[in-house]
Amino acid sequence: MNQYILTSTYVKQGGRLTGADIGDYIHQHFNVRFNSGHVYKVIKRLGFSWITTRSRHPRQPQAVQEAFEKV
Fold first, then answer.
1. CA pseudo-torsion sign 28, 39, 16, 6
2. Is 50 exposed, middle or buried (0-12, 13-18, 19+ CB in 10 A)?
3. What residue numbers bound the domain in which 54 lies?
């Protein structure tokens, strides 16, 4: 599950990984359902923060992103 979280948070298209996404992953791979509060407890036990930032807006051109980083 650590690998899923790490790879899902660094997607080139941007976006973010939510507790619901992780809950769905747990259900699909382990056939266990957790309520959202418990999913966040699992995330914390694994050493992750439950808040993630958007790596890059999905519709933002690469040139605009690079110009913003130079500011």
1. negative
2. middle
3. 2-70
- Asked if residue 39 lies in contact with residue 26, where contact means CB atoms within 8 angstroms, the answer is yes
Q: Taking the model in full, what pTM does it have?
A: 0.61
Task: Report DSSP state, residue 16.
Answer: -
Residue 41, SS3 per DSSP:
helix
Q: What are the contacts of 36-43 at 24+ separation with CB within 8 A?
A: 43/5, 43/19
What average pLDDT does the chain have?
80
Q: How many structural domains compose the chain?
A: 1
Q: Pick from 35, 39, 37: which is nearest to 4 by CA?
A: 39
- Estimate the crossing angle of helix 36-45 against helix 19-30, to 10 degrees: 90
How distant is the alpha carbon of residue 44 from its chain centre?
Answer: 13
